[in-house]
Amino acid sequence: MASRYGKKPVRNSRLKISIAAAALLAVFLAWAAWVTIFAPPTVKASVAGYEVVDSSHTTIRFDVVKPAGKDAVCAARVLDKAYSVVGYREILIDAGAADNKVFSVSVNTTQEGVTGLVDNCWLK
Asked: Can you point out the beta strands (E) in 8-71?
């Protein structure tokens, strides 16, 4: 039928599409491996609790997940009812800190806070 009406076989175009799809898949898998292997190490903190001691102090308890053998710094903030920062303190987490240790930090405040956060950590 193809020789009579001049149509090209469909098989050739399907082969080209299959090769292009396989090439795109290979590029995606190579990119995913690159990002996974060479991603920079990160530090993550999660708040275990906080206590508003008085109008000028708040205690925040938190734990940190970081790469072993690296120093990290975490920023603790205390917020008031209007979500304004009323207290701030940076805490050094040294390389020898245990992985499952809960840290406790007292933050001085300018007025009474309503919540304590540790939302930003970085490697030193």
From this structure: 44-54, 57-65
Cβ neighbours for 64, distance < 8 A, ≥ 6 positions apart: 43, 44, 45, 72, 74, 93, 97, 103, 121
16, 6, 65, 13: which is closest to 41 by C-alpha? 65
Task: For the full predicted model, state whether its pTM sits above 0.70.
Answer: no
First to last CA, the chain: 72
Quote the radius of gyration of the chain (alpha carbons, Å).
28
Please state, rounded to an integer, the average pLDDT across all residues of the chain.
88
pLDDT of residue 2: 62
Mean pLDDT for the stretch of residues 11-35: 90
Quickly name the fold that domain 44-123 has: Immunoglobulin-like (2.60.40)
How many other C-beta atoms are found inside a 10 Å radius of the C-beta of residue 103? 17
> Token digits for 88?
């701030």
- Round to whole Å and give the CA distance between 30 and 95: 33
